[in-house]
Structures are given as structure tokens and as C-alpha cells.
Specification:
heterodimer; A: alpha+beta; 20 helices; about 45% helix; B: alpha+beta; six-stranded antiparallel β-sheet; 16 strands
């Protein structure tokens, strides 16, 4: 068996890698997406990718590291040629290896479920000749890695479960350990791994429940339960944290996604904000010069801003304004983002010595540094959100509209009621004294007269904690200049001094994870996006690559015969299962107990694997592609041999039926092979086909196969 | 076992005696139960033996006798519960005398029924029909417009509708009383359940206005009650009461589904319960008619009633109204006053006709355009073309020849395969498509309005194709399914059904699809047709069958439901807010000067429920593990059954009525939690009564007694504190120390 397995692996690896080398000059589709992160890893630049946890990117980056990739490549166009510094071979090596190893793992899985080696061979053949899995593992993509870890987790758990009889065998616990680890890896590669992980946990919970019920065990039982819990729940969680730890250790430079993170997080990265904020005074005092950043990054991270332009007297829709100076939120660093904190009872605009810190509950005025206008709000409807108050830089037009420029400082993350306002760390609400409105980012952007900056309003019906109403001081210095001219110069100069602030790992992890789960890119339909319902029948495909000059192309298209067989097998399984279940309840035993248990276990793993990896997509609102179906498909394919063997041994009894069924199996395998051969030009991108041949391959009208116009 | 019964006889023995004598006046179901209950006593006592045979021994005779006391429905407590709940619900029911919150919708729809005007709503019709009926019977004439919340009712009779909802709302505590009594056989527990519901400000508020929720919850509770009663009849299959409760379950199920689609969760609960029941029966190896009986009672009957509700709905609403445009041409021809009702128009399409095109997809709109351009970055910067569900002048299009605008000669019919141009009547732009991707469906091409005064370019040419027709067939108005093929790109005019963002006024996207498969999305029919040069002929549109109407109205409702997306600036209520009572709903009034009603559950009760949910889960898991380890739980066998089976059923009900909201994309409100809360309240008492029984076992009689009975007065006191929420507040808001609610704003997120 071992010999056979290794042969299998060699065969598949060869099959996979040979064309991968041939086509290494061109890259495709999502490679562009993952490639940019690999480059950032190589350059150690921080990024945030909401599509999945960092392990997947790290694994791809490992390939780059092995090939001494320096990260210098612009990943912007599908079909662009790789330059010589990109080690395409090593970058694609790991996914291809994982993809190849899925085949023997499929074999092992079927064997572990208790089926014969012959059946297992059939399973691995089906996986081997599945065009979609081949295509997906030949590029720098994560799905094959995910499937590899999923299968590994299930196989090793089943191994563990088989060893149930001997309690103290070290091997047994090693298998459990391997299972827990690969679960963590699967979840670390893509969130999708979570579904299979939960399935596995469910299975383990049922098994553990039996252990609890085993009255022959006393103290051992408790140990068993605790160890299982530790290995399958605690350890994966710790490993998951570990991935983030490595991720944050590796990526220590500031980069393009800095602005999505909080100021404190940014300050912990090398370069970027930390260069500016290093050594700022910690405590905000009366006379401080500050920039105020909104805690909300929707729609954009931005700073409280004002400039020498007034609200138009009348808006487009005829409503009037106060015509005072605009106050906005501006998503770029600018000298107009500077504000000075003033004590209403004093005239001074500089920090006294010793500095008098601003505390929670203090009343302040905010003076705009460049225009010397006070931050003001009054009972005039805001331009874009008429239910809120307009916020202005106050100008006295002598129209009986008095200044209302007193604000109360409310530190939301305070520990005591006399907390001092701290740079970066404190989250502050500014509450208007006269109207108790809260200074808030409305989320709307102003039209042309407001230079398309973001609208800031005073919200009177503000309730609870909203990120859009919370601000923090990002840049900060103690003001020293008394004169306006000097002050302007001072504002333009960078801040200096020296203290360093560090976030703990857990704080960073929580922030990063939260951002990854909540930040949503603008989701829109893609040319190749599809709906889950289209996947079962493979009504859709994805074009990965088209040769720049001829008709050679690569598509994500599965093996139609296998897909049909898999659907059929699933259907037959459900039918069989229900029949047996009802008949057993009526005390009619068609098959022996052991056989029934085997069938149920196979169903939980294969059909269950399909269900948990497929059905959740119906509830998701993100853009979906055919490759999201591949993990479910893998489990569904493994169902085919399981059902076939069951039919062969338990349903068909007479030898003639056996012979006929054998013929059917052979015919099915042959047609799978032929289908694989027919579509292999679209799988490997060679040989080049003529337009007629391509048209003949378009088995479904809904497939987009590209034709080059001559 | 003795514990609970002892307790029951402690507090209730006088009334129990009284019950026996007064029993027959209760209701017919109870009557029968009483008559047969003596017979079934021995058998019922053996019921636990299905899971454990040790229950059958001689010494239990005495216990059985005492136990049977609890099987009677104690009438006095029930009546007092009913009276108290009626009082709390009817107190100040006419206040405030203006439209509150969603009354503006449901009151309006009640008026539509009285006026027999057709309308469209996302909920099934039963609730609104009942409201309409109640209004009609109490002398409301359907003339009040219900325009917006805050409108004064003045001389209109609105109390009837509110009173009707309040009556149904006040049925909830007695129902809960009976359910818990059935599940736990403990009168104090049942009383406490009732008091939790009676004194919950949220339920009072929700029951006092013209809303669907009291009606919905009435049916949900009714279904649960009949289901529990039906379970109780398990050992007497096919008896009269067995049939009665089975059929009542079915009736209530159809009622709850007929009010709101939330009823589906209720059906799921009953379905799971029934499946479990059948599974048990299947294992008994006594083949019987059970399956067929249940299929009849729980599937056929509800289905029949549900369709009947719709039949009544369609029969009552036979006049054209604001909901017409959502439905197909055939559907509209049923409505009196609609222009398709007994329509007369030219029969065949000709050049020079002015038409409207309706998409054949169910709930597909009219081809529409208006004076607005696609924004920058969305295809070409040309005029928008959309599909619009309402009837409007912007839906009119003029059919022209491909090359000339001259209509002087005799009108010529358009035939299958002809090339035409379509000019938008209001903006004189031509229907146009080109090789830009569509705004939402990126695989399709963009459709725009192009050209000035009807002159455009070759991209304005469309080929008319009659589905199933051949070259030369004329195009029949209303009856032909027409496809419009774009001449230069070969794509077909298509309505994707996706809603455009704000710039497209949330109308539906229209594209040109390169996939030529015939689907309803790419088929259109000509609905209005005006051509003065052709004779008008009376057209009989094929009347749709009832099933077609039913299907169509359902698809329209489901589309409407999923279209209710949260608006950008609105703060959306999240499902996790609900159990912790995070935020309520303003029913009426905002300012200090106004009369304010605020929908918020009594926080004491809600937090108690939340705590008890956790308590229940912990208790059940401990119990399960202990049993799995083979521990002997001794005499609490019965307690275990109450906890696991009764509590399990209620817990399942809570889960089924709560968890699905997490997966919903539509806008959610606080009041969606109230059906789940019913189950949670009952579960609370189940959990606590089990705790009491355990305490009792441990000789902590006083503690047990206090524990259980403290909950009643506790809820009453908190009700006294919070009652202004439902009965209305005046004067300053709660943050003001002079306010009547001062100090009661325990969470900052409450807005009163």
C-alpha cells in the first residue's frame, strides 16, 4: 500500500508541475490579488486583508522566501508577464504540492472510513482526474492548501478514533494532535476552514459523549475528555493567535493600509505615524496643538478639518445655511487639521508651565490653528443630514446668531472620572454645552462647494456608543508661540520629542481581527462571479488566463462526469440512509450494525463535509466564485466510491448483478478519464485549440470561453 | 414529585375543590377532559415509564391521587389572570388619540379592506383582514387616511380596532398559564408565568395599538397551547379531544402564517415536535393511522385555511388601488377600476403606438426612464433606463420605424422579426444599448436613453421577436410575450431584478443580456396601448387561475420583504440587542411637550429571563452529563422530565423564533423579538420551578417557597415603576430629575 501511495503521489505531482513550469511566465486572475501580499511580506510592510487570516498569505510568502523573491513586482494586470526576479516556480510549488497530496489523502480517508483499498483507489483516481482541482492547485492560490489541511484534519481524526481501544498509545494522541493542528491551519488559511472544523468538533463531541457514558472508565474518563478539549479547542485557538503573532512580528513596517488602523496601532509600526508621533507629549493640556482623528473609518479615516471657505447661503435644494466657515473631516494630512485647545476662562493660547492637563468633564474651546475660528455648532440644519446640527467655524455676521463654542470633554474609555486626556490613547466625545449635541462624522460627503470632503455634524439624538462620534488626538504638541504668524510656522513644522508607546500583542490582535471582520470592500458583481445554485450543475466557469496572441487558455472548469456522479452519489446516499433509518426504527435490519455505523460515519464525513462547506454560502452576501465550491466538491467526490462499494456489497446480491455493476463502474471511470482528456487543453493551457474545437468544448451555453478574433 | 404537588395543594387546594364543581362552564375541551380524566389516571401515571419502567410500583398510588389534583385546570387563578390581563391591556386604550407608529400602515390597510381597494403589503393578509373586520363591526367607516404617525383621529372610531388587538393580546397570559400548567403541573409556576407576561410593559404596549403583533402572538401561543394539549392526549389517540387539539393546532398554525411569515418558525416548531412524536410512534411498532391523521391536521388543514385566507383577500379586494403595479397584467385585469379591467384597446401593435412594456418576471416592473443620467463611472454618462413598479407617465414609449419618424400613412402592423426604435415619450430619448458593462450585473451590457428628439444612432435599433411566433406574425397586445433583441450587439433586453443604489432611485436594473435563453426576465408584454388610428377592441385577458394569483402574490411579498433593506443613516436594531433589552422603540412622541409612549420590555423581567436562559442551559447540561454517567437522580425523575421535555420544547421554541433573525438581511426591529420572548418567559418559570423542587427536596421549604413566589410580586413592583412607558408619559424626559421616570433610565440607550 505504501508503495502504491508513493507512486500515486509521484504521478500526480509530475502531472501537476510539468505544465506549471511551462506556463510560469504568465500569471492569472487571483494570483494578482495574493501576489501583492506576498510582495508586501517580502518587504515586511504591514497590510490588512479582510478575505482571510494571515496564515494563507504566509504560506505563499514562504514560497517566495524559498525562491529569494525580493518583492519587487507590480501586481496590477492579469496576463502581464513575470519579470525574471519573480521565482514563479517556488511561488507555485507549495499550492501544487498540497494539491498533489490531496490525492493520497483522499485515498487514506476512504481507507480510514473502513472501505476497501480498491474503493480508495477509485476515490483517488476521481480526485486525480478532477480538472477544477488541478487548475486551482497549479496557481498561487490558497484553495488547494485549504483542502489539503481539511482532508489531513479529518484523516488524522479518524485515525485517532480508530485507536479508541488502546488508551495510552502515544500514536493515538499524536494523531489527535495532528488533527487539531491541521484544523488550526485550515482555519488559518481561510475562514472557510471553520465549517469543517465545526463539523469535526461535532463528531468529536459525539464520540466524547460516548466516552463520558462509558461507565467502566472513572478517572481516565476525565483525563480523556480534558485532553480532547485541550487538543481540539484550546490548541487550535492558541495556534490561531500564533499565526497573528508571527504575522505582526514579520510585518513591522508601515504601509498602504495603515490608515484603517487606530492611531495607537499605527504608532507601533516602523515608519509612518510612529515617526511623527514619537516623543509627543502624552497629556493634552490647555494650549495644546492637536489633530483630531475620527475613530470611525467609515467611509474613510479622516481628521477634523476646517478651511477658509464658508457654507453656501443656500443649498441646491433651497435650504439655507448660516454661511459660516465650513468644518469638515478630511482624509489626508494637512496643516488645516490642526486645532488648539483653549481654556474658555483665559486668553492664552500657549501651554503654561507647568502644563494644566485637560481632564474628563472639562469645558474647552477649540480654535482652528490657521484661521483662528472657534469650533461652533447651533440649531441650523446640517447640509447633508438635515436632522443634525450644522458645525461651523464661528464668524460673527452680526445677525443675532451668538457664538456657541463651548465643548465638554467626555473620555469614553476612562478609568476614573478625573482621567487626563491622553494623546492617541484616549477616545473622546465632544459634547456641545448649549445643545448637548455630539460632534460626529455623519458619513455623507459634501458636494463640490465642500470640496467633496466628509461632513461633520452635531448630533442631538446621539445615543449609546458610536464610533463616528468618538475622536482621538493623533498628532500633538505643546503650543509655544503667542503670535499668529509664529503659530502658523509652528503648525507647519513636524512634532518632535521622544517617548515610545507600545500596544500589547493581544490589543493589536483584537484590533486587527476586528478590522478584518468588519471592514468590507465595496462588493460588486464580477464578470465571473456566480451564485451557489449554479455550482452544483457547474453552470459557470472562470477564465484564468488567455494567451496574449493565440487561443490557448486556462479555465476553471470541472470534470462534468465527476460532478454528475458526485451529485448522483449524494442523492443515492440520502435515499439509502433514510430508507435504512426508517426500516431500522421498525426493527427491520437490512445490514449488520457495524456496517450501518460505517455508513453513518462515511455520511457524516462526506455528505456532512459537503453540506457544511456548501450551504453557508447561501447566507453570505459577498461576491462568490466557483472556486468557493471546491472544498465541498472534494468531500462530495469522496462520497462516490463509498456509495458504490455499499451498493456492490450490500444491495446487489446476485453475481450477475455484480458483473453488470462492475461494467458500469468501469464505464463510468472511462468516461471520467475521457472527460478529463477532453478538457485538459483548458486545464493546462496547451495545446492551443482552434476556434471550432473551442466551440465544441462549450458544453453549456452559460460557459464563457474566450475566442480571439482573427 | 411530592414537592410540587404538595406545593400545589398548599396554595391552591380551596380553589381546586371549587374547580371541580364549576368545571363544565369552562369550555368544551376541558369538559371532555374532565369526563375522561379519571379513566386515564392510571395510564397517565405510567407515562414516565416509557423512558423508565421503575415508575410502575404499588407505592405510588397515593402519590398518583394527590398528583391528579394538579391535572385539573384551576379555574379561579385562570379567571383572575384573564381579568387582570384584560384590565392592564384595556387601561387607557384610547390614549393617545392619534396614530402611533405602525398604525399608520396597518390601520390604513384595514381601511383598504373596508373600502375594498387593492393594495400590496409584504405580510400575508389575515391580520389586516381581521383588523378591517374589527373596525367594520365597531362602526369605523374606513375614511380616516392614516397618513402619518401623530395624526389625530378626531371623530373616527378607532377604539374598535385597538380593542380587538388588545383582546387578542390579553389572551397571551392565560394561554401561557395553561401551557406551563400543562408542562409542569404546578399552579404557582403557571401563575408566575402569567404574571411575568401581564406585568411586562412591552407586551402591554404592543397589545394596545393597531398592530399585527398581538394577532400573530395570539396564534403562535394558540398553536403552542394546542400542541402541548395534543401531546398530552398521546395515550388516547383518535379520541375526540385528540382530534380537537390536533385540528386546533392546525388552525392556529395557518393563522400565524396568515398574519406574518414569522409564523413559519412556529410551523417549524410544531413540525419538529410532530416528527419527534412520529419517530417515537414508529419505534413502537404499532402501525397506525397516525401519520395520515397528522398530515391532515397539520398540513392539509392549515394549507387549506391559508389558501382560504388568500381567497377571501382576493374576493374582498376587487377594486383597483395603490398596489396594482406590483402585479402582472393578467392579475390587474381582475380589479374594477384598473384600465385593464374590461379593457378596450387596439389588438395588434402598430408603428406610431404609445405603449407600456411590462416585464414578465413575477413582480417585474415597467420599462421606465427619467431625466437622470447614470453617474460618472457607471458605464456611459447617459440617461438611465430602469424598471419601475408603479404606474407613471415615464413608463410610456413610442414605437417608431427604424429610419423615419413619419406616421402619416395608414398604420402598419409590426410583425415578428421587424426592426423598431423605441422613443421615451417624456424625454424623447431612444432606448439604446452599447458595449459598456451594466451597473450591477457586470456580465450584461448597459441600457440607456440616447439621442435628442428621437434622433439617435444605429445602436437604437431593436428587433421584435414574439416568443413561439414565426416570421410575419403580428404582435398581440397583452397576450404576446415579446423579446427585444439589440440589433448591433445581439443581446436581449433584460430585467435583472436587482435594485439600483440611491442614484437610480432604488428602481430595478434593466440590462441587455448576451445570453439568449428564454426566461421571464427577458420577456415583456405590452400592457397599455394607445393608437388613435386603430379601432379599439374589447380584449379579454386570460383570467389567471387562483393558484397563479396565489403564487404571484407570494413571490411579490417575498421580493418586497427582502427589499426592506436598512437605510444608510438609520441605526439598525441588531438581534443581539433584543434579549438584553438594549433599546426600545418610540411609539409616539419625542419631545418633552408631547405625550410619549415607548415600547420597552420591563427590564427586571427581561433580565430575569436572560439569566434564566443561562440557568436552564447549565441545569440541563449538568443533568445530561449526570444521566450519561449513570447517576441516579432518584425521586426527581418527574422533575427531570419537566425540565428536559417541557423546558426543552420551550427552549427549542425560543431558538426557532430568535436565531433565524441573525441570518436575515432585511431591516429588523425590536418588536420582532416578542414571539421568542413568550417562550423565554415560560422557560424562566420552568427552570425556576425545578430549582424550587430541588430546594424542597433538600428540606429548604421556606427557601423554595420564597424563591418561587418572590417572582410574582417582584414583577409587579417593577411594573409599577415602569408602567408610564406603556400608559404614556408627559413632562420632562428621564434625564431631568423632576421627571416621573427620573432614575429609571438604567441604560443610556433607552430613549425616554
Amino acid at each position: 500500500i505504501k508503495l502504491f501511495l508513493s507512486k500515486e503521489a509521484v504521478l500526480s505531482t509530475h502531472l501537476y508541475e510539468y505544465p506549471a513550469l511551462m506556463l510560469s511566465l504568465l500569471h492569472s486572475f487571483d494570483e494578482v490579488y495574493y501576489g501583492q501580499f506576498v510582495s508586501l511580506y517580502m518587504k515586511r510592510v504591514f497590510f490588512i486583508d479582510e478575505s482571510g487570516p494571515p496564515l494563507g498569505h504566509m504560506i505563499l510568502a514562504l514560497g517566495g522566501y524559498l525562491g529569494d523573491f525580493d518583492g519587487n513586482f507590480v501586481w496590477n494586470r492579469i496576463g502581464a508577464e513575470y519579470t525574471s526576479n519573480v521565482p514563479v516556480w517556488t511561488l507555485r510549488l507549495i499550492p501544487a504540492l498540497c494539491g498533489s497530496l490531496c490525492v493520497p489523502l483522499g485515498y487514506l480517508l476512504v481507507v480510514e472510513l473502513g472501505y476497501s483499498h480498491f474503493t480508495a483507489l477509485g476515490a483517488s483516481l476521481l480526485l486525480l482526474m478532477e480538472n477544477s482541482l488541478i487548475v486551482q492547485s497549479r496557481f498561487m492560490l490558497l484553495d488547494s492548501v485549504l483542502i489539503f489541511f481539511l482532508l489531513l484534519a479529518v484523516v488524522s481524526y479518524l485515525r485517532f478514533h480508530k485507536h479508541l481501544c488502546c488508551f495510552s498509545s502515544l500514536w493515538k494522541w499524536l494523531w489527535l494532535f495532528l488533527s487539531g493542528t491541521s484544523c488550526a491551519f485550515a482555519v488559518g488559511v481561510k475562514y472557510m476552514g471553520l465549517f469543517t472544523y465545526l463539523l469535526l468538533l461535532g463528531l468529536a463531541a459525539v464520540h466524547t459523549w460516548h466516552v463520558i457514558g462509558d461507565k467502566t472508565l472513572c478517572n481516565v474518563m476525565l483525563v480523556q475528555v480534558v485532553v480532547r478539549f485541550l487538543v481540539l479547542v484550546v490548541m487550535p485557538a492558541l495556534l490561531y493567535l500564533g499565526f497573528f503573532y508571527v504575522h505582526l512580528i514579520l510585518l513591522y513596517r508601515s504601509g498602504p493600509h495603515d490608515q484603517m488602523m487606530s492611531s495607537a496601532f499605527q504608532a507601533s509600526l516602523e515608519g509612518g505615524l510612529s515617526r511623527i508621533t514619537q516623543g509627543q507629549p502624552l497629556e493634552v493640556a490647555f494650549g495644546s496643538q492637536v489633530t483630531l482623528r475620527s475613530a470611525s473609518s467609515k467611509p474613510l479615516p479622516c481628521w477634523l478639518h476646517s478651511h477658509k471657505a464658508n457654507y453656501p447661503i443656500r443649498y441646491e435644494n433651497g435650504r439655507g445655511s448660516s454661511h459660516q466657515q465650513q468644518v469638515t473631516c478630511y482624509p489626508f494630512k494637512d496643516v488645516n487639521n490642526w486645532w488648539i485647545i483653549k481654556d474658555p476662562s483665559r486668553q492664552s493660547l500657549v501651554v503654561s508651565s507647568p502644563p494644566r492637563p485637560v481632564r474628563h468633564g472639562d469645558i474647552i474651546q477649540l480654535l482652528h490653528g490657521m484661521t483662528s475660528r472657534f469650533l461652533n455648532t447651533h440649531d441650523v440644519a446640517a447640509p447633508m443630514s438635515p436632522h443634525s446640527q450644522e458645525v461651523t467655524g464661528y464668524i460673527d455676521f452680526n445677525v443675532s446668531m451668538p457664538a456657541q463654542n463651548l465643548w465638554r470633554v467626555d473620555i469614553t474609555n476612562r478609568e476614573s472620572d478625573r482621567d487626563v486626556w491622553k494623546t492617541i490613547l484616549s477616545e473622546v466625545q465632544l459634547i456641545h454645552v448649549n445643545t448637548s449635541a455630539v460632534l460626529k462624522l455623519s458619513g455623507a460627503s459634501l458636494p463640490d462647494w465642500g470640496f467633496r470632503q466628509l461632513e461633520v455634524v452635531g448630533d442631538k439624538i446621539y445615543k449609546g456608543y458610536q464610533q463616528s462620534g468618538v475622536w482621538n488626538v493623533e498628532e500633538h504638541r505643546y503650543g509655544k508661540s503667542h503670535e499668529q504668524k509664529e503659530r502658523e510656522l509652528e503648525l507647519k513644522s513636524p512634532t518632535h520629542d521622544d517617548i515610545s508607546r507600545n500596544l500589547t500583542f493581544m490589543a493589536k490582535f483584537i484590533e486587527l481581527q476586528w478590522k478584518m471582520l468588519t471592514v468590507r470592500n465595496e462588493e460588486s458583481e464580477h464578470k465571473y462571479s456566480s451564485l451557489p445554485l449554479e455550482w452544483i450543475t457547474m453552470d459557470t466557469n472562470i477564465a484564468y488566463w488567455l494567451h496574449p496572441s493565440n487561443n490557448a487558455q486556462i479555465h476553471l472548469i470541472g470534470n462534468s462526469v465527476t460532478w454528475t456522479l458526485a451529485n448522483l452519489a449524494l442523492f443515492i446516499y440520502v435515499l439509502l440512509f433514510l430508507t435504512y433509518l426508517l426500516r431500522r426504527r421498525r426493527k427491520i435490519e437490512d445490514i449488520p450494525e457495524a456496517c450501518w455505523e460505517q455508513l453513518v460515519l462515511a455520511g457524516v464525513v462526506c455528505s456532512g463535509g459537503w453540506v457544511v462547506n456548501y450551504l453557508p454560502f447561501f447566507l453570505m452576501e459577498k461576491t462568490l466564485f466557483l472556486y468557493h465550491y471546491l472544498p465541498a466538491l472534494t468531500f462530495q467526490i469522496l462520497q462516490i466510491p463509498v456509495v458504490v462499494e455499499h451498493l456492490y456489497t450490500h444491495v446487489l446480491r446476485s453475481p450477475s448483478q455484480h458483473k453488470a455493476f462492475g461494467g458500469v463502474i468501469l464505464a463510468a471511470l472511462c468516461s471520467v478519464y475521457f472527460c478529463y482528456r477532453i478538457f485538459s487543453p483548458l486545464t493546462y493551457g496547451q495545446p492551443e485549440l482552434t476556434s471550432e474545437e473551442l466551440a465544441a468544448l462549450r458544453w453549456r451555453d452559460s460557459w464563457d470561453i474566450l475566442f480571439r478574433k482573427r | 414529585m411530592e414537592g410540587r404537588c404538595g406545593e400545589g395543594s398548599h396554595t391552591q387546594s380551596p380553589s381546586c375543590a371549587a374547580v371541580r364543581s364549576r368545571k363544565p362552564c369552562m369550555d368544551t375541551g376541558k369538559h371532555r377532559e374532565k369526563a375522561s380524566s379519571k379513566k386515564t389516571e392510571p395510564r397517565r401515571a405510567t407515562r414516565p415509564s416509557s423512558s423508565d419502567t421503575r415508575g410502575l410500583n404499588g407505592t405510588s398510588t397515593e402519590k398518583r391521587l394527590r398528583y391528579s389534583d394538579c391535572d385539573y385546570t384551576p379555574l379561579c387563578p385562570l379567571l383572575s389572570v384573564a381579568a387582570l390581563s384584560l384590565c392592564t391591556r384595556f387601561y387607557r386604550i384610547t390614549e393617545p388619540p392619534h396614530v402611533c407608529w405602525d398604525e399608520t400602515h396597518f390601520g390604513k390597510m384595514g381601511s383598504y379592506y373596508i373600502n375594498r381597494t387593492f393594495f400590496f403589503d409584504v405580510h400575508p393578509p389575515l391580520g389586516k383582514m381581521l383588523i378591517g373586520l374589527a373596525g367594520y363591526l365597531t362602526g369605523y367607516d374606513g375614511t380616516f387616511p392614516f397618513i402619518k404617525p401623530g395624526d389625530k383621529y378626531e371623530h373616527h372610531n378607532y377604539w374598535g380596532m385597538r380593542g380587538f388587538c388588545a383582546v387578542l393580546g390579553s389572551c397571551l397570559p392565560p394561554f401561557a398559564f395553561l401551557v406551563v400548567l400543562e408542562l409542569s403541573h404546578s399552579t404557582p409556576a403557571a401563575l408566575i408565568t402569567a404574571s411575568l407576561l401581564i406585568f411586562d410593559t412591552g407586551y402591554i404596549t404592543l397589545s394596545q395599538y393597531i398592530l399585527l403583533d398581538p394577532i400573530l402572538m395570539f396564534f403562535i401561543m394558540g398553536a403552542v397551547l394546542s400542541m402541548v394539549k395534543f401531546n398530552h392526549q398521546r395515550l388516547r389517540p383518535f379520541s375526540w379531544s385528540w382530534w380537537l387539539w390536533l385540528l386546533l393546532t392546525g388552525v392556529n398554525l395557518s393563522g400565524s402564517l396568515g398574519v406574518k411569515f414569522v409564523g413559519l418558525f412556529n410551523i417549524l416548531l410544531v413540525g419538529i415536535n410532530t416528527a419527534w412524536d412520529l419517530w417515537r410512534l414508529l419505534g413502537d411498532l404499532h402501525l397506525s393511522l397516525h401519520l395520515i391523521a397528522r398530515m391532515f391536521g397539520l398540513i392539509m388543514l392549515p394549507l387549506f385555511l391559508y389558501t382560504t385566507i388568500f381567497a377571501v383577500h382576493f374576493v374582498i379586494l376587487n377594486r383597483s388601488g395603490p398596489g396594482d403595479g406590483f402585479f402582472s397584467s393578467a392579475f390587474q385585469s381582475r380589479l374594477i377600476g384598473n384600465n385593464l379591467h374590461n379593457a378596450t384597446m387596439p389588438e395588434y401593435l402598430a408603428y406610431g403606438s404609445i405603449i407600456t412594456l411590462k416585464n414578465l418576471r413575477i413582480a417585474g416592473g415597467y420599462l421606465h426612464s427619467h431625466w437622470h443620467l447614470y453617474p460618472e463611472g457607471v458605464g456611459a454618462h447617459q440617461q438611465q433606463v430602469t424598471a419601475y413598479l408603479h404606474k407613471d407617465y415615464n413608463n410610456l414609449w413610442l414605437v417608431k420605424r427604424p429610419n423615419s419618424d413619419d406616421f402619416t400613412w395608414n398604420p402598419e402592423l409590426i410583425r415578428h422579426g421587424d426592426i423598431i426604435r423605441l422613443e421615451h415619450k417624456e424625454t424623447t430619448r431612444n432606448l439604446h444599448s452599447h458595449l459598456h458593462e451594466a451597473p450591477l450585473t457586470k456580465k450584461h451590457l448597459q441600457v440607456t436613453g440616447y439621442g435628442i428628439n428621437g434622433t439617435g444612432d444605429p445602436n437604437d435599433l431593436w428587433q421584435v421577436e414574439v416568443c413561439g411566433g414565426k416570421k410575419g406574425d403580428p404582435v398581440k397586445v397583452l397576450r404576446s410575450k415579446v423579446r427585444l433583441l439589440h440589433r448591433s450587439t445581439g443581446c436581449v433586453l433584460y430585467s435583472s431584478g436587482k435594485t439600483l443604489p440611491k442614484w437610480g432611485w432604488e428602481q430595478v436594473e434593466v440590462t441587455c443580456s448576451p445570453y439568449l435563453k428564454e426566461t421571464p426576465n427577458s420577456q415583456w408584454n405590452i400592457e397599455d396601448h394607445v393608437n388613435p388610428k386603430l379601432p379599439n377592441i374589447s380584449l379579454h385577458v386570460l383570467k389567471p387561475s387562483f393558484l397563479e394569483i396565489l403564487l404571484e402574490s407570494h413571490i411579490v411579498m417575498i421580493r418586497g420583504n427582502s427589499g426592506l433593506k436598512p437605510k444608510d443613516n438609520e441605526i439598525n436594531s441588531k438581534p443581539w440587542h433584543w434579549p438584553i433589552n438594549y433599546q426600545g422603540l418610540r411609539f409616539s412622541g419625542v419631545n418633552e411637550t408631547e405625550y410619549r409612549v415607548y415600547l420597552l420590555g420591563n427590564p427586571v423581567i427581561w433580565w430575569l429571563n436572560l439569566f434564566s436562559l443561562g440557568l436552564f442551559v447549565v441545569m440541563v447540561s449538568l443533568c445530561c452529563v449526570a444521566l450519561q454517567r449513570g447517576a441516579k437522580l432518584g425521586g426527581t425523575k418527574k422533575g427531570k422530565q419537566v425540565l428536559m421535555e417541557g423546558g426543552g420544547l420551550l427552549f427549542l421554541g425560543w431558538l426557532l423564533h430568535y436565531l433565524p433573525f441573525y441570518t436575515m438581511g432585511r431591516i429588523l426591529y425590536y418588536h420582532h423579538y416578542f414571539p421568542a420572548m413568550l417562550f423565554s418567559s415560560m422557560l424562566t418559570v420552568m427552570a425556576h420551578s425545578t430549582v424550587s423542587v430541588c430546594l424542597w427536596k433538600l428540606q429548604g421549604y421556606v427557601l423554595a417557597f420564597i424563591h418561587l413566589l418572590a417572582m410574582g410580586p417582584f414583577s409587579m413592583c417593577s411594573f409599577y415603576l415602569f408602567h408610564p412607558l406603556s400608559y404614556g408619559m408627559n413632562g420632562p424626559l428621564a434625564h431631568d430629575p423632576t421627571s416621573s421616570m427620573a432614575g429609571l433610565r438604567w441604560l443610556d440607550s433607552w430613549e425616554f
